[in-house]
Write a structure and sequence with these properties.
The complex is a heterodimer. By secondary structure, chain A is mainly alpha-helical. Chain A is built from 14 helices and no strands. In chain A, 75% of the residues lie in helices and 0% in strands. The radius of gyration of chain A is 26 Å and the shape is globular. In chain A, 38% of the residues are buried. Chain B is an alpha/beta fold. In chain B, the strands form 2 sheets. In chain B, strands 6-7-8-3-9-10 form a 6-stranded mixed β-sheet, sandwiched between helices. A 4-stranded antiparallel β-sheet of chain B has the order 2-1-4-5. In chain B, a hairpin with a 2-residue loop joins strand 9 and strand 10 (237-243). The chains are: A mainly alpha, B alpha/beta. The interface between A and B is medium-sized, with 22 and 27 residues.
Chain lengths: 314, 265
């Protein structure tokens, strides 16, 4: 109402006067701009805050344990009387579970993405895609006890000497958990490849698999790699499944049949409350958190590098 | 195999296919419930340029895409009737992949692959199992597409660095590398400026010595300039097909005359 009033008076005094009003700097526009900017800042500030806390608290830890010991010692025994703080057992536990998860999720995820994007009839796609995404909605604690009470006993019938808590079962289930992420993001990337490229390839007498492997997948490679890295970051940070199914014994091993403790599972153990605050065991939590943070950060850098290197522009 | 097939075809088709490179018989086509081509029958001669003209939605592009079975990639479509090339049925006992190797296609918008110029030309040939001298084939096809002189010093540069007209001629070269004998072009100049269009038309005229060319165009001057024969479509029906000069100067149907004189469409 007020606006229309203004317009009509403006029209009376001369149409050109209205052009001078700078709408972008009206109080309303500014308020909106600041509100949006604040929301965008919140996530950045949170990330910076977490990084700062990790760094500062880690300093308490590194005041008592040298970085050299942290990086070269092969035992992690903060709760023992004979304390050792070598990150390798936790790091290897995390890597072992992540590698197993990747072996499960990347091929299955990518192939289902290809199937959904290029092979499945519309009817099948409409069922399959939400079905896969449903997997992403299952709480990880459910995956965790599924690993411990179903997958492990099943695996024990094939793998003799498999520990109740083991990296294999946890890794497989973490892999299943991240399949939807890989398939959904990869499928989006494949579908984003212009249809005209696929048609051009078909018109040259290419078969469907040739179009998929030589046009669609190369065209979508940056998106596919991004989905892989995101899913792996998720696997590295996954906590509930590994806490329940992989065990609580820091163990420097590459044997998936053994029990391992991941960085995240260790953080859970310390955070549960038995560890008195202010002790070196307590501060070790932040050092481990920092390593975890640096790992996912470097994964992101790696992803960017790969994406820039292999991107096919269209 | 092919000779068997020819001997087995009915005498009428065999007789009529003499002189007709491509023969369309009683073709009907549906997108879902939408009946877009109605009982189209048409003969296309070898080593000529045949233009399909008509207003938007008249079915000319659909017919073109029926010839190399590209419409099959679209779900929920149906075709009745026959398409014969040299008397051989392209739908019965024929694999769409083999059909497309024989009938090349150039699209409305240039669609080179995001690869180098060389890779673009050789792509289809490699997919088809070409084992000969790749450099020789690339040069030969780029020459035929009148692009060689412009790109010979940068064959390993990205195709996307080329202008729109050059990209379209690259797409022609890529199609020729598969060694088709019929080349379909779906409004190939619609995204190009007048100079690039003139160059493309010149290329098309050179190609007809070796290939049978069918071109869909919105531009009637273009049809007049480059085609030997023209077919006019309206609402999914073939209204008239004749020598281009005949059709443009003395059309036998009222609708054709109305269209070419700009009274509608």
């Amino acid at each position: 109402m007020a606006d229309s009033q203004q317009i009509s008076t403006g029209a009376k005094t001369g149409a050109h006067a209205d052009l001078a009003v700078n709408m972008l700097h009206s109080p309303k526009e500014r308020a909106v701009e600041y509100a949006l900017g604040f929301c965008a800042l919140v996530s950045v500030l949170t990330t910076l805050g977490i990084a700062a806390v990790l760094l500062v608290e880690s300093l308490h830890f590194f005041a008592e344990v040298s970085i050299v010991e942290f990086l070269t010692e092969t035992r992690w025994t903060p709760q023992f009387i004979d304390k050792h703080f070598g990150i390798w057992p936790l790091l290897s536990g995390t890597l072992l579970v992540t590698v197993i998860a990747a072996l499960v999720a990347l091929p299955i995820g990518l192939m289902s993405a290809i199937f959904i994007a290029e092979y499945a009839p519309e009817r099948v796609r409409k069922i399959l895609k939400p079905g896969l995404e449903l997997l992403a909605g299952i709480p990880t604690v459910v995956y965790g006890y599924f690993a411990l009470t179903f997958v492990t006993p099943l695996l024990q019938t094939f793998v003799p000497g498999l520990n109740i808590y083991n990296a294999l079962s946890a890794g497989i289930v973490v892999g299943v958990m991240i399949i939807p992420m890989v398939s959904s993001l990869s499928e989006d990337a494949i579908r984003a490849v212009p249809r005209s490229l696929a048609e051009g390839a078909y018109a040259l007498g290419a078969t469907r698999i040739e179009v998929v492997l030589r046009v669609m997948v190369p065209g979508a490679v940056s998106g596919i790699v991004a989905s892989f890295i995101l899913a792996l970051s998720r696997a590295i940070g996954e906590t509930m499944i590994v806490t329940l199914a992989a065990g609580a014994m820091p163990n420097l091993t590459a044997n998936p049949a053994e029990s391992v403790q991941t960085m995240t599972a260790f953080i859970v153990n310390v955070s549960l409350g038995d560890t008195p605050q202010g002790t070196v065991e307590f501060y070790s939590l932040f050092a481990v958190g920092l390593v975890l943070f640096l790992m996912t950060l470097s994964m992101n850098f790696l992803a960017n590098l790969i994406i820039r290197r292999y991107r096919e522009r269209y | 195999m092919e000779t068997n097939e020819r001997n087995g075809s009915p005498p009428a088709a065999r007789g009529a296919s003499e002189g007709a490179k491509v023969r369309v018989e009683n073709l009907d086509f549906w997108y879902g419930a939408n009946h877009v081509l109605r009982d189209v029958s048409l003969d296309i001669r070898a080593n000529e340029v045949t233009a399909f003209i008509g207003p938007s939605g008249c079915g000319k592009s659909t017919l073109l895409r029926c010839l190399n079975r590209m419409n099959e990639l679209i779900p929920d479509t149906r075709l009745e009737g026959r398409v014969l090339i040299d008397g051989r049925d392209m739908y019965r006992n024929a694999d769409p992949v083999m059909v497309r190797r024989r009938i090349g296609m150039v699209f409305q918008k240039p669609n080179p692959f995001p690869k180098t110029i060389f890779e673009n030309v050789i792509w289809g040939a490699r997919v088809n199992g070409y084992k000969g001298d790749e450099a020789e084939l690339v040069e030969r096809c780029l020459r035929k597409a009148a692009l060689w002189e412009e790109v010979k010093d940068r064959l390993h540069a990205q195709a996307y660095g080329l202008s729109g007209g050059q990209q379209q001629r690259l797409c022609i070269a890529r199609t020729l590398a598969v060694a088709p004998d019929v080349v379909l072009m779906d409004e190939p100049a619609s995204a190009l400026d007048p100079i690039a269009t003139a160059k493309l038309e010149e290329t098309i005229l050179q190609l007809k010595e070796r290939y049978t060319i069918i071109i869909v165009t919105h531009n009637m001057q273009q049809a007049g300039r480059i085609s030997d024969r023209t077919a006019f479509f309206y609402m999914g029906e073939l209204i008239e097909a004749d020598a281009t000069e005949q059709l443009f100067t003395r059309p036998s149907r009222k609708r054709t005359e109305d269209y070419i004189t700009g009274r509608f469409g």
